[in-house]
Amino acid sequence: MRLVILDTQKSVGEWAAKYVMKRIKDFQPGPDKFFRLGLPTGKTPLEMYKNLIEYQRQGKVSFKYVKTFNMDEYVDLPRDHMQSYHNFMYQNFFQHIDIDPKNVHILDGNASDLNAECERFEAEIVKAGGIELFIGGIGADGHIAFNEPGSSLVSRTRVKTLAEETLRGNASSFFDNDMSKVPKRALTVGCGTILDANEVMILITGAQKSFALYKTIEEGINHMWTASCLQQHKNVLLICDDDATLELRVKTVKYFKGLMSVHSKLIDETD
Ligand code: PGA
Description:
By secondary structure, the protein is of the alpha/beta class. The protein has helices at about 10-25, 45-55, 85-90, 115-130, 165-175, 190-195, 210-215, 250-255, 260-265; strands at about 1-5, 35-40, 65-70, 70-75, 105, 135, 160, 185-190, 200-205, 235-240. It has 9 helices and 10 strands. Strand 2 (about 35-40), helix 2 and strand 3 (about 65-70) form a beta-alpha-beta unit. Helix 1 crosses helix 2 (about 45-55). The structure holds 2-phosphoglycolic acid (PGA).
């Protein structure tokens, strides 16, 4: 596991965008070799999306040969609703970049058969060749995608009922602080789906996520903190700001900060 600790939320977004850009470029995607990218919604990745849009505008990176797979989507929220993840992704990212909409994959939370929709999504990922880089965030309760506390750590894409903490978090960020407006169910990739990716990159910012980060990396693997499943992944990169490290041991923070010169090479554009 690599843990990159940066000063601010803004620098987390910049660093993450540089890393994604470098991964895509180094992969040298083409018509017969698409880069497969797993993507999250939420407040945390917004700065990364902003930077990626800018890099694409400057011609530093292209999404022409990128296929995207979003982690989750609400159930029964119209696709054109302001807070649907379809809408979020188009508003904040896809409409500003050169991706072909046919390469965008987002679960359909309005499908008549939700289980079949989840199976279809898993099959699409396999057909594309698996996910090269899965980007995510974590919730204050340690969830990853919508794998709420107690979710199976080998789960696949499925329907989930959202936890109280998640409803509260999403209500305050996106639904005028009104819990009754937040859909109670969602479709989400499973922990197993995420663990199948070649690499997983997680962004964590703010003191409110610090206990979840501690549970994710400093304690044992535990299905009540589903992000801790990442300890079993071969190639994980966590990028956080200083505030998110508040609950970590001083020794842990010092250790990873000491590796910063090594980590900086990960976004070095000169090699
Ligand atoms: P946030 O959501 O980025 O809006 O904090 C992350 C999550 O709950 O997974």
